[in-house]
Write a structure and sequence with these properties.
The complex is a heterodimer.
Chain A lengths: L1 H25 L5 H5 L3 H4 L3 H9 L3 H5 L12 H5 L6 H14 L8 H11 L8 E2 L5 E2 L15 H11 L5
Helix pairs in contact in A: 1-7
Chain B lengths: L1 E5 L4 H4 L2 H13 L2 E4 L16 H16 L4 E3 L3 H16 L1 H11 L12 E2 L1 H9 L1 H6 L9 E4 L3 H4 L15 H8 L3 E2 L18 H17 L4 E4 L2 H9 L1 H7 L8 E3 H8 L22
Parallel strand pairs in B: 1-2, 1-3, 3-4, 5-6, 5-7, 7-8
Helix pairs in contact in B: 2-13, 3-4, 4-5, 6-9, 10-12
Classes of the chains: A mainly alpha, B alpha/beta.
Chain lengths: 167, 287
Amino acid sequence: MAEAQVELREEINNRLLRLQNELSDYCFQCAKCTSGCEAHKLLELEPHKIMALLKRGLIDEMVNSDVIWTCMSCFKCRERCPQKVSPVDVLFALKNLAVMGGKQIPGNYTSMLQSILSMGLIQDVQEVQTRDMKTRRREDLGLPRVSKPKDASKFQMVLTKLAVEKV
Amino acid sequence: MKKYTLYPGCVMQTEQYGYELSIREVFPVLGVELVDVENFSCCGEPVKSINQLLTLYLSARNLAIAEQQGFDLFVPCSVCHFALSECKNILDNDGGMRSRVNEMLASEDLEYKGKVGVVHTVDLLYDHVGVKEIKKHVKKPLKGLKIASHYGCHLVRPSEIGRPVDSENPMKIEAVLEALGAETMDYAEKLDCCGGLLLVNLPESALTKTGQKLQAVEEHGFDGLVTVCPWCQRMFDSRQKKAGETVAAKLEVPVFYLTQLLGLAFGLDERKLGLDLNLSPVDKLKV
């Protein structure tokens, strides 16, 4: 477990370093990413500013900020960047670093991760309501059994190696 | 009958039964046979913020399982379709990462070889089946209905990894809708996000995005909205009431899966298409 953690941290650090190097070469602050950003108007995410701060080496500051968790991963910044910089992936890397560094994970991410570890899916099979408030289960509707990992222990073994220590 | 393995993902098979029901009803009519396979898991995309490597591994695992069947993989969820496509793109171009992932997969006797293609509802309908074939099965044309299409971010972008539709002006859903006899219209908010992936940590903001887009659809005078992703549908349909409360508006937009509209136009039974599970006011439409 500890070994896997070190390996993962290295992996993420390397990726971020690579991204940062690419950024210094390519991002010229045209702000096309921010102009199309789905989280910009509502949550004041400004990807081009994050890129600028990273270029100046403010990685820790970004890792510890809440703003990195406002990205909706719409991928418009990655699509439209004339320099093929991908702010959305930089944000994923920053969030991964925050988790690795032991920052509290916001929202329900932890329960989704725990559910994946225990049954392979982000949530258990739900009962749903019809428009006229009747309850329906999957099997009532004639749907086949859900597809999920057959050998849970083998599945968990690899995932636990990969997953964060805190969970 | 052309065969595809069905990859159900998490959201569709644990909650969005209307999508799965309508898919299982409609595709056999179009000569597409779906093969169910055990042992799939989450694609990993929902937890990418926590651990990107975990996402890559989970996607690779699902692709490796699909390879054992030999058919192309039909992935109706846009988020899963993105994750599996990106994984394919990485593993097919980065030999080092591929052998690293394969070492981990070996513990479940799996191996990624890169042999299966990944298709989504939209390209399965438009590119594999084709509009001509779809038209042949229309018994009750959706005459007089003006439908807004919502493609969903993960289906549309990023084009560099290969997406089934154009990244700035996708038109394949419109083509299918027109084959069913419905009217379509371009609108400024067409590419706006549903907010779905933000529901996990910032639900208020996520629902604001949902509400704003639904308001726009209403203002443009559309009769309904069509989706092709269980994440988008669970925002626009399942949570429409909450989204309305969040943006302080009474929203009444009928929201359908594209496959449900196909089924209606083919004259299939509403129940079998899971239409009673849509929580938006779909009864408003006289189909």
